[in-house]
Write a structure and sequence with these properties.
Elements lengths: L6 E4 L2 E4 L10 H14 L3 H32 L1 H6 L2
Antiparallel strand pairs: 1-2
């Protein structure tokens, strides 16, 4: 199994990089997450990391789409106004 990208080799051995944080979930969220992790055969931590990655990718894409829409609206403003 390959070493995860957030593990790094240093002079004293392997260490984890990144920010440590506490995440407080409701009881129902914790139970659902535990069940899902068991079903998928992965840790709850791995599922949460995947969820964060998915969220960041999706919102980055949405930001690009919003930016492109604003740019195109400005570019074609005169034509859009005439089409009203």
């Amino acid at each position: 199994m390959p070493t995860p990208e957030w593990y790094h080799s240093g002079p004293t051995g392997w260490y984890r990089s990144g920010m440590a944080m506490n995440l407080r979930l409701r009881d129902d969220q914790t139970e659902a997450l535990k069940i899902r992790a068991e079903e998928e055969g992965v840790s709850m931590h791995a599922i949460l990391l995947r969820a964060v990655d998915d969220y960041l990718a999706r919102t980055a894409h949405e930001a690009l789409v919003r930016k492109a829409a604003k740019e195109q609206t400005a570019k074609w403003a005169e034509l859009l106004e005439r089409l009203k």
